[in-house]
Structures are given as C-alpha cells and as structure tokens.
C-alpha cells in the first residue's frame, strides 16, 4: 500500500483524485507544514465475528509451547464478560 503525503491546499483542490486513490488502496496523509492533520484510507473489510469456542480451539491447537500472555488472558476474560449475549440458548429451555 502506497502512502501519499500532500498539503491541505492540494487536497482541497483535488479531492476527487484523492478519493480515487483511496479506493485503489492507497493511504493519503494530508499535511500542514510538517504535521499530518488527516489520514484518508479505505475502511477495513468487515469480518464475521468468530465464536469464542472457535478461538479457544485455535489456541488449543497451538503447538508452539509458548505461554499465553497474562494481559491477553485478562482481555479474553473481559471480552467473555462483556459479550454474554453470545451464549447460545436452547429453545427448549424456555418450556
């Protein structure tokens, strides 16, 4: 991905060209003097979220022998606590 640096004045006068370049996958840094004041890039493609069970299975298959970082483990715990809605409910439980 190419990164293009242009001035604020140039960006204002040629905005359609900038959008075309962003669509093509380039990143545009709009600058004032030597300071970047804005960055244009295409949005990241939305990816379907994975189930927690899929993530755990991927870790279980990790044969590297490397321990999981404690901070990462806490992030996973927090994610589990904040996404209780992901629990699959058996429709027969309500009867």
Features:
95 residues; 3 strands; elongated; 2 domains; YefM-like fold; alpha+beta; three-stranded mixed beta sheet; 4 helices
Task: Note the topology.
Layout: E1 3-7, H1 8-13, H2 15-23, E2 27-32, E3 35-40, H3 52-60, H4 70-82
Parallel strand pairs: 1-2
Antiparallel strand pairs: 2-3
Word description of this protein:
Strand 2 (27-32) and strand 3 form a beta hairpin. Strands 1-2-3 form a 3-stranded mixed beta sheet. Helix content is 39%, strand content 18%. It is built from 4 helices and 3 strands, in the order βααββαα. The model has no long low-confidence stretch (mean pLDDT 77). By secondary structure, it is an alpha+beta fold. It has 2 domains: 3-40, YefM-like fold (3-Layer(aba) Sandwich); 52-87, no CATH class.
Q: How much is the average pLDDT?
A: 77
Question: How many strands in all?
Answer: 3
3D shape? elongated
Low-pLDDT segments: none
Order of helices and strands: EHHEEHH
Number of domains: 2
Examine the secondary-structure arrangement and name the CATH architecture of the largest domain. Answer: 3-Layer(aba) Sandwich
Largest sheet: 3 strands, mixed
* Coarse structural class: alpha+beta
What is Rg? 22 Å
């Amino acid at each position: 991905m190419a990164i293009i640096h242009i001035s604020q004045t140039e960006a204002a006068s040629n905005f359609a060209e900038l959008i075309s370049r962003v669509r093509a996958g380039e990143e545009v840094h709009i600058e004032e003097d030597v300071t970047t004041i804005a960055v244009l890039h295409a949005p990241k493609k939305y990816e379907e979220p994975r189930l927690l069970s899929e993530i755990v299975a991927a870790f279980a298959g990790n044969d590297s022998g490397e321990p999981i970082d404690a901070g990462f483990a806490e992030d996973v715990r927090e994610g589990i606590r904040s996404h209780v809605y992901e629990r699959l409910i058996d429709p027969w439980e309500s009867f």
